[in-house]
Amino acid sequence: MSKKTTIITVSALAALALIAGAAVAVIGPSVTAPEAKPTQSSAPVEDSSSIEGLSVGDVLTEEQARPLGRNYNDKTAQPFKLPDGTEVLISSEEPLPESVRTALTEKFAATTASGSRESARAALQESRWVQSQTGRNIIIVIQSYGVLGYGSDGAPYSDNVWVATGPFAKDGVPAFATRDEAFAHAQQIVAVQENPGSWEIIG
After folding, report:
1. pLDDT tens digits for 169-182?
2. Where are the chain's structural domains?
3. Residue 69 backbone phi and psi in degrees, to 5
4. By 3-state DSSP, what share of the chain in percent is helix, strand and coil, each rounded to 5?
5. Continuous H helices in 71-164
6. Half-sphere exposure of 73 (CA within 13 A, CB side)
7. 81/87 Cα distance (integer angstroms)
8. Could you tell me if 127 and 105 are in contact, meaning their C-beta atoms sit under 8 angstroms apart?
9. CA distance 160 to 150
10. Residues above pLDDT 70, as percent of the chain
11. How far apart are CA 123 and CA 142, in angstroms?
12. Cβ pair 63, 49 in contact under 8 A
């Protein structure tokens, strides 16, 4: 009798152990798989301010023009704003694009429309601004009022004249009866410069 009781007791304990083990398996902390981290794309992010691939004269976006304008001292790549608000790429190392030349020609023509000495001085001041903005040496061919010649008695006479002037002109400049003569004189000035490719004749 004693043996049987012992066997039953041992079996009961084994059963309890199994139940306890099952309970532990259920109520114990569960093991979860680690969260998957998002993978980062290796594709390069496009820089909207980059001017790579652009040429002088190309239209710039606001994102491209803004950082160039901040780097004012670097004239190898600068934005130039046209009268309609469009900004185009210019460089001190290359001739001004046609769109810029046309805008400047019209600007100087409007300034000197009266043909007065005052308007010529205003245009000369504007040419200094253009030279500082573009990094190019500027000569403007404009109308003015000055000594056109001398009469038979040797007295000078004044009239509407054409001149080639700009920041380079430290003294007076000769006057001509026609634009073509003044333009030819401007070409002669450029031809004797050390670096004629860095000059612009506007007008």
Report:
1. 987 889 999 999 99
2. 49-94, 95-202
3. -65, -30
4. 40, 20, 40
5. 98-111, 117-134
6. 0
7. 4
8. no
9. 14
10. 75
11. 8
12. yes
Instruction: Write out pLDDT tens, residues 117-171.
Output: 999 999 999 999 999 999 999 999 999 988 777 777 777 777 889 999 999 998 7
Q: Which two tokens stand for residue 198?
A: 């860095």
Query: Residue 101's closest CA among 130, 76, 73?
Result: 130
Specify the length of the chain in residues: 203
Distances (CA, A) of 98 to 69, 121, 142, 161, 179: 21, 25, 19, 26, 20
Distance CA 50, CA 73 (A): 18
State whether residue 6 is helix, strand or coil. helix
pTM, full prediction: 0.72
